[in-house]
């Protein structure tokens, strides 16, 4: 679609004619320097987070730059009657697709050789999201209790690209409508900026993840750039004072410096703090290329060079750092992180020099756009294939560790959970249950948090052998009367406890939790006493399951990765028994004191089934017992179930039990 109108930049209330010229803004080396400041801040933060606490705000600087440049292109095109959606999006494809396709393909290749199936499956999903420019939505939907750590998501950084691309889709349409209706584009941009900023501040308190990842709470940062573009494209009124360019430039640098120092990853962000980098970037752009900081600091050759490679550098740096984290099963040594950054810079320069620049030289041909779209679709299809096929577990080099690779994956019977929730009328995310025989009354209740869930399979198998029906009730801290405040999981815990107490068919109650007793939280000890008291007075047999040892390493480190020479395999796959005993000493002493008051409450210790005198083992008989640092794998779950059965036979030899199959 092409627009042919008189070259005016706003509606009739503020119509200003401008001389015909290109609809592409004049090149400004200082903006490339600002890009360099943004990308180097982000890279430094990701590689050495203690070096620049607020380096992640570089993304917000990018948003302002993008909003300014894109809006300048569209507004000038509308004013000159030369704007075309086809030309606009062809330019975006030429700019964004080449480096992105290359990085996604490279990540896929590395994943094929080095990633375990669950890691490769996640990468496939994120490749699909990245190729479709919806990474921010995908990542938002992944946020939750069982979510993978951010550092092990090699395409995590594409969330910002998703927001930008969604802006590029919607904003030209809005500008075109505003232009056709002869609205003042400066006023339109300013109002939209304000509305989005209000959503950002209001949403942060109630929906922090949505505010961070979704466009509604972030697009104001791009609209700041758009508002600035509309302002600068409108010639000043006769007699108006010139902009204080030096003051704007120094103020902009100061605001960005404050953001880099004062805004930390623990801050509620974006919110009000995001005004520091965004306003700082806007001030520097508004100051123009002639202001001393822009001319000398931002336009020097080194900064401009980094600005030119800023986009491929942003794309390359995070996958390299993330893959290093995955391979090393933890934060890599500083030398490895530094090497990853240097490699990212080299790859970014090669991408710019050998891929991006040559494609720009054929900007009037149509075939590059068609080819890039086809390649992006191929990448998306490849990602979807990997995702839908569980990370391709039969790849060479993966098959030999297939069983332990499966141990790393959370196992859930989603159909059983849905049926159980339906039976008990659970309708929210915070209410969770499993019931072995859904249509039969439960006779045993397992109550607990994720450290109750990770023993549910083994205990279900044990009690099924005894003719019992185990009900698992998912909670936060599974004790009576603890204040919930704003914790929705703790609010749902009390009704779970009351359900187990009020169900006559439930004769045995097991409690398993990660929370530890300590002198600094006396209310927890009192709540445990109250819980034991209520259940025992109701005539129920209570068994408290002590916690397992927490590993100080990722159990993935116990499995050798194929194709990665530098991978360090953890030998032995264990933590020192003395470390475990020391960590649990206070809890064990306080628990023993509570149990003396309740002689009928039994104590079972899963940790003792995995520990000997020297070590607490993460792997036994070649099978991985853990899926992360503090949760049992499915094999570990069944192992504890078998040990529990043997313990029960020893505790109650008179009870006739069938041997476990």
Describe the sheet with the most strands: 6 strands, mixed
Strand content: 5-15%
How many extended strands?
Answer: 10
Walk across the major sheet and give the strand order: 1-3-2-4-5-7
Q: What characteristic shape results from the CA principal axes?
A: elongated
pLDDT average, as an integer?
91
Structural class call reads mainly alpha
Number of helices: 26
* Helix proportion: 55-70%
What value does the Rg take, in angstroms?
A: 30 Å
pLDDT below 50 for ≥5 consecutive residues: which ranges?
1-21, 657-661
The first-to-last residue Cα distance is 70 Å
Describe this structure in words.
- Mean pLDDT is 91; it is low at 1-21 and 657-661.
- This protein has a six-stranded mixed sheet, with helices on both faces. Strands 6-8 form a two-stranded antiparallel sheet.
- The chain has helices spanning 29-47, 58-80, 85-114, 117-131, 135-142, 158-180, 185-206, 208-213, 219-233, 245-262, 275-287, 292-298, 301-308, 310-328, 334-360, 367-388, 402-407, 414-424, 450-453, 456-465, 488-502, 522-537, 577-583, 585-596, 606-610, 634-651, and strands at residues 432-435, 444-448, 470-474, 508-512, 541-545, 574-576, 602-604, 615-617, 619-620, 623-624.
- The chain contains 26 helices and ten strands.
- The protein is mainly α and 661 residues long.
- The termini are far apart.
- Helix 1 crosses helix 13 (301-308), helix 3 packs antiparallel against helix 4 and helix 9 packs parallel to helix 11 (275-287).
Characteristics:
661 residues, mainly alpha, 6-stranded mixed beta sheet, two-stranded antiparallel sheet, 6% strand, elongated, disordered N terminus, disordered C terminus
């Amino acid at each position: 679609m092409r627009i042919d109108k008189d070259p005016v930049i706003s509606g009739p209330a503020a119509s200003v004619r401008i001389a015909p010229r290109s609809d592409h803004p004049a090149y400004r080396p200082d903006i490339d320097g600002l890009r360099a400041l943004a990308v180097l801040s982000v890279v430094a933060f990701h590689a050495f987070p203690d070096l620049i606490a607020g380096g992640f705000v570089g993304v917000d600087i990018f948003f302002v730059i993008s909003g300014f440049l894109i809006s300048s292109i569209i507004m000038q095109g509308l004013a000159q009657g030369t704007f075309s959606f086809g030309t606009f999006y062809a330019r975006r494809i030429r700019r964004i697709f080449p480096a992105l396709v290359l990085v996604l393909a490279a990540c896929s290749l590395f994943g094929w050789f080095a990633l375990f199936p669950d890691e490769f499956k996640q990468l496939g999903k994120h490749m699909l999201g990245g190729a479709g420019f919806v990474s921010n939505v995908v990542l938002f939907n992944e946020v939750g209790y069982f979510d993978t750590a951010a550092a092990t998501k090699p395409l995590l950084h594409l969330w910002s690209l998703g927001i930008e691309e969604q802006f590029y889709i919607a904003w030209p349409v809005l500008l075109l409508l505003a232009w056709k209706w002869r609205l003042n584009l400066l006023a339109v941009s300013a109002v939209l900026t304000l509305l989005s900023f209000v959503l950002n501040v209001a949403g942060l308190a109630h929906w922090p993840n949505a505010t961070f990842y979704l466009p509604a709470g972030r697009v104001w940062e791009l609209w700041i750039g758009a508002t600035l573009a509309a302002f600068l494209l409108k010639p000043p009124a006769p007699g108006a004072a010139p902009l204080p360019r030096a003051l704007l430039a120094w103020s902009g640098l100061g605001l960005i410096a404050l953001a880099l120092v004062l805004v930390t990853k623990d801050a509620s962000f974006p919110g009000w703090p995001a005004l520091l980098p965004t306003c700082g970037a806007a001030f520097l752009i508004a100051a123009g290329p002639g202001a001393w900081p822009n001319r000398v600091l931002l336009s020097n050759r080194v900064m401009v060079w980094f600005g030119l490679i800023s986009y491929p550098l942003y794309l390359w740096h995070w996958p390299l750092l993330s893959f290093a984290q995955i391979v090393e099963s933890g934060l890599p040594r500083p030398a490895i992180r530094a090497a990853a950054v240097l490699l990212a810079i080299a790859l970014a320069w090669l991408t710019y020099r050998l891929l991006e620049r040559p494609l720009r030289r054929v900007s009037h041909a149509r075939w590059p756009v068609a080819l890039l779209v086809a390649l992006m679709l191929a990448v998306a299809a490849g990602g979807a294939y990997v995702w839908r096929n569980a990370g391709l577990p039969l790849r060479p080099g993966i098959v030999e560790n297939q069983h332990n690779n499966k141990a790393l994956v959370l196992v859930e019977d989603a159909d059983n959970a849905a049926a159980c929730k339906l039976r008990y009328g659970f309708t929210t995310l915070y209410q969770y249950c499993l019931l072995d025989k859904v249509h039969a009354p439960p006779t045993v209740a397992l109550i607990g948090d994720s450290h109750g869930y990770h023993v549910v399979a083994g205990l279900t198998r044990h009690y099924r052998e005894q003719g019992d029906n185990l009900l698992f009730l998912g909670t936060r801290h599974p004790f009576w009367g603890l204040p919930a405040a704003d914790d929705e999981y703790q609010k749902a815990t009390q009704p779970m406890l009351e359900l187990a107490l009020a169900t006559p068919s439930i004769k045995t109650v097991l409690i398993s939790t990660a929370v530890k007793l300590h002198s600094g939280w006396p209310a927890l000890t009192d709540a445990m006493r109250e819980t034991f008291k209520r259940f025992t007075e109701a005539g129920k047999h209570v068994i408290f399951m002590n916690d397992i040892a927490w590993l100080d390493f990722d159990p993935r480190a116990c499995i050798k990765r194929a194709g990665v020479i530098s991978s360090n395999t953890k030998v032995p796959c264990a933590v020192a028994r003395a470390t475990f005993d020391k960590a649990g000493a206070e809890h064990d002493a306080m628990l023993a004191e509570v149990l003396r008051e309740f002689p009928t409450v039994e104590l079972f210790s899963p940790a003792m089934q995995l520990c000997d005198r020297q070590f607490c083992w993460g792997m036994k008989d070649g099978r991985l017992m853990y899926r992360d640092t503090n949760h049992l794998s499915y094999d570990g779950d069944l192992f504890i179930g078998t040990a529990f059965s043997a313990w029960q036979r020893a505790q109650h030899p008179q009870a006739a039990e069938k041997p476990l199959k």
